[in-house]
Amino acid sequence: MELKNAVCIVTGSATGIGAASAVMLAGKGARVVVNYSKSEDAARATLKACEAAGGEALLVKADIAQDTDCRRMAQAALDKWGRIDALVNNAGATKFADHAKLDALSADDFLRIYSVNVVGTYQMVRACAPAMKQNGRGAVVNVSSIAGKNGMGSSMAYAASKGALNTLTMSLARSLGPEIRVNAVCPGLIDTSWTRAGYGERFAAIEQRYKQGSALGRVGTSEEVAAVIVWLIEGAELITGDTIMVDSGMHMGLIPRKT
Fold first, then answer.
1. pTM for the complete prediction?
2. For labeling, which of 74, 98, 115, 248 is most exposed (least CB within 10 Å)?
3. Of the listed 122, 158, 199, 210, which one is catalytic?
4. What residues does 143 pair with on adjacent strands?
5. Which string of b and e fits 142-166 if b means at least 16 CB within 10 Å?
6. Can you tell me the distance from the alpha carbon of 96 to that of 197, in angstroms, rounded to the nearest whole number?
7. Is 158 a catalytic residue?
8. What digits encode the pLDDT tens for the residues 164-217?
């Protein structure tokens, strides 16, 4: 897909992977919808960064757990630019909870996390798919997690939701082809302010274990994940229904200790 003048919606793009993706797309000449639900100041900073990178940008406040907000965001892109070419479903929710403590999660926690990570993603695709179909082509990238593959991560509810998202990715790819490609990226531990805040004082120990246990021996950055997301939109013309691990090889399991 030619990204110059392409219209790309990036949900949850105030900070982290979403922000990095939005700026990278803008740097290739794309017109980007920057989305946030709470962090307005950070989202405005991302908007300015997109414009500085050379792309047009539009700021839209929306909660993807609400179908009306999803449809409104898609319509905002259509009203401004008349088309939608790509969608990055980055908005996500979790609750940091020890997997060993089953009482740390309630039914409401599961429902809230699923409402964003799974239902919200589905709603965004549903809102954008008709415009992509009308164009004759489109690309969707869902930001999942290694947690959806190995059952680890910030909480069991989060891991389960990302497993569901991986399955949803395949289902959507089957139903939306041949015009629309749908893929997912599964980051491992990424050094972001959101991750550091969530894990708190435990982050340093988790980071050290990750470095020791992964084949490449390091955590990732938002920009490294964004580069894969942009590639899945811009290139990867024969790839759909796939989940790409972006995790320093951690999905292979802990590496043997070197002597």
1. 0.95
2. 98
3. 158
4. 185
5. bbbbbbbbbebbbbbbbbbbbbbbb
6. 10
7. yes
8. 999 999 999 999 999 999 999 999 999 998 899 999 999 999 999 999 999 999
